[in-house]
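Deliverable D5.2: sample structural annotation.
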Amino acid sequence: MQQTPAKRRAAIVYNPVKLDADATRPVLAAIEADGDWAPSLWLETSVDDPGTGQTASALEQGVDVVIAAGGDGTVRIVAEGLRGTGVPLALLPSGTGNLLARNLNLTLDDPEQSLRTALTGADRPIDMALIDIRGDDGTTHRHAYLVMAGLGLDAKMLANTDDDLKAKAGWLAYVKAIGLALQDTDQLRLRYRLDSGPTHRVRAHTIIMGNCGSLPANILLLPDAAVDDGRMQIVLLRPEGFFGWVQIMTKIFWENGVLRRTSAGRRLIGVTKEVRALDYLNGKRLDVSLNRAEQIQLDGDSFGEARSFRTWVDPSSLLVRVPRDATD
């Protein structure tokens, strides 16, 4: 007797603080019925386990796609668990950042469309970045990230962010934190080596490594970063006083955020001078050591302090579910 093929099944790993599960369940159930999918596994994250165990459970039960429903932290943790498995990640954006969804030009404010893409879309392979972080005690921890990692201004800003205010006011909560971080005049003293090149010694206010380039509010921080080129882009912010910060903001907000979006603007950029306060690098691997431990962040989450680290690209190691017309 011929057996009936098992129905496809999804799992949704969700942060209950960010997702209204009661409102989402009937929407997903209707899409499942339309596509003849089995009812999805609903796996709620917790403070003790923000997604690692839930993702492993979904894989053990043989699901066909895992939907990450939460902020950037939930997406990063689920993606880390799916890296190299061949099981695609789908995104149900929630929270204040949604950085990967923004960089993939996915829908941010239409949950039904996001869920429909999760079950009917196509799979796009993208790169992930890995990082080995060594602390002052000599221990090393490995993590993955999807968008950006950094030390300096952005990590200090996150450390200064009021979590309660962030929950209520979103990205407005970072305004106060940025002000506090800018008051810190200490520079990073670091040595870095890009790929197999020579070692450089520099002082910088901030160093950011990225697999993607866009931030909320139309900020294009890393204009040459791409999710599928097997490389990362690095930026060193080295302002000298107020004028240096003006140069950086002009470069990021005007040149990257406005001029690069048109052909005429890109031609104009070609005749502008490079900004001394802003150094861009590109490569596959970066080794950094610092004279003292510094705060480090991955995809918007603080990961404590790093005395040194190595970060590199793992090409095409993650499948992401996108609308079918996006792959044409």
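Annotation notes: The first helix runs from residue 21 to 35. The chain has two domains: 10-120, 129-315.
The annotation will be released with the project's public dataset once the embargo ends.
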